[in-house]
Specification:
two-stranded antiparallel ribbon, 20% strand, five-stranded parallel sheet, Rossmann fold, alpha/beta, 8 helices
Length: 173
């Protein structure tokens, strides 16, 4: 999983609610970018404009969206199954193009690669609808899927202070 993250492959972590994926994604980001503030975790209700940003036609001023704010860092999509299809398509296109295509046809380029980590919440009694959504996300991003174990805050973060290697070992169990 870590190698895929470092190489920039989209990750899809599948787990039940409350399993610590959000904390793990932040910790994973801090392994690569220890002092950077380019970890972004937009809410699933975000619009396309909020995700991509806007370029004003006359002045060409860029009002940055989440994709630009995550430039060189991590974009974490929690409950990815709840995001609008058009928003996910915009994220996919940006990762493939290495730039954001805006409504007016202008492409604003990204300076560095965005690492995409997604969390798909799944319950014990999986429905066909959930499986269909999971397959749709996997196909959209050609993501590497991992079943994420339920982990506690203590296991992921401090008390006692865990080294990065210890956290990664916990994620592999």
């Amino acid at each position: 999983m870590i190698q895929d993250y470092l190489e920039g492959s989209p990750l899809l972590l599948v787990s039940p609610p409350g399993s610590g994926v959000s904390l793990f994604a932040r910790r994973l980001h801090s392994l690569v970018q220890p002092n950077a503030d380019n970890f972004r975790a937009p809410h699933y209700s975000i619009s396309e404009v909020g995700m991509k940003g806007v370029i004003k036609e006359r002045t060409f001023d860029l009002h940055k969206g989440e994709l630009h704010l995550a430039d060189g860092g991590t974009l974490f999509l929690d409950q990815v199954e709840e995001f609008r299809t058009s928003v996910l398509a915009g994220v996919r296109d940006t990762l493939q193009r290495k730039g954001v295509l805006h409504e007016n046809g202008i492409v604003s380029t990204l300076e560095e690669r965005i690492r995409l980590v997604m969390h798909f919440t799944i319950t014990e009694s999986v429905t066909n609808t959930e499986l269909d959504r999971l397959c749709k996300v996997l196909n959209t991003f050609e993501a590497r899927m991992y079943r994420f174990p339920k982990m506690t805050y203590t296991e992921i973060c401090d008390t006692p202070r865990k080294t990065n290697e210890e956290v990664l070992k916990l994620a592999k169990r």
